[in-house]
Amino acid sequence: MTEEKVEKSEGHSLTGVVLSDKMDKTITVLVERRVKHPIYGKYVIKSRKVHVHDEANEAAEGDTVQISETRPISKTVHWKLDRVVTKAQKI
């Protein structure tokens, strides 16, 4: 019997905007989603802030980033940075 490597499935990924990069190796990301109201049918924007592990401190405030779910890294950090989609424009 041969053992096959079974890769763990990555958790789902989200896209959001970096609100804060003041912590070391951690960023705060605002994730927004559109949800249809069950009665009125209007689309409502729901948002939440999540803490994301950024090992290389590569994301800056205002960047759009893609994040994915991971094992708990600390009490509040359960997401990791996959990539920076777009950099923020500096004025």
Low-confidence stretches: none
The total beta strand count reads: 5
Major sheet size, sense and barrel closure:
5 strands, mixed, barrel
Roughly what fraction of the amino acids lie in strands? over 45%
What is the count of helical runs? 0
- Helices and strands, in order, run as EEEEE
How far apart the termini lie comes to: 62 Å
The whole-number mean of residue pLDDT values reads 90
Key descriptive features of the protein:
RNA-binding; mainly beta; five-stranded mixed β-barrel; about 90 residues; NA-bd_OB-fold; Small ribosomal subunit protein uS17; about 55% strand; rRNA-binding; ribosomal protein
Ordered list of secondary-structure elements with their pairings:
Blueprint: E1 13-23, E2 26-36, E3 43-53, E4 64-69, E5 77-86
Question: What would your notes on this structure say?
Answer:
Keywords: Ribonucleoprotein, Ribosomal protein, RNA-binding, rRNA-binding. This is Small ribosomal subunit protein uS17. The termini are far apart. The chain has strands at residues 13-23, 26-36, 43-53, 64-69, 77-86. It has a 5-stranded mixed β-barrel with strand order 1-2-3-5-4. It is mainly beta and 91 residues long. The mean pLDDT is 90. A hairpin with a 6-residue loop joins strand 2 and strand 3 (43-53).
Short structural description:
The chain is about 0% helix and about 55% strand.
